[in-house]
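Lecture notes, unit on protein representations.

Consider one protein chain, 147 amino acids long.
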Amino acid sequence: MVFNIVAAFVIPWLAGIFLVKKDFRLFLLIAPFAAFVAVIFDVLGFHFDFWRIDPEYETEAIAAMPMYFGIYPILAGYLFLTIERTDLKHFVIILIYSFITTVIEGIGVLIHLVHYSNGWTIYWTFVSYLLAYIVCYGYYRMIRNVC
């Protein structure tokens, strides 16, 4: 569990300091929703036994908690900072971040931290991250006009 905390929470937050300093308002708007989306997707994945994260706990989401509050909100924050600061098409940026997030999880699979089952593959992982980022993008578009 120490590895999960360092790799999925501490290191992302060290990188996230720049994000928070660069656009604190954007971070406050995006990070909580991104964490919420991550929890929903993970709980569904655990429920349908698509994946498991080590170390195993009776409540599987405990092992993923550092990711919910670390890597996922930080990556989502950088995603929307990139969207706001570049001229690239938003969908292209979402595809790139989906790929990056999938590669990070793929490393977790290679080091036997993440285990797939019931037909789940790294390709479905990409689709799930793409869908999660699209959901977050819908939220971003909705609140961008309000705030």
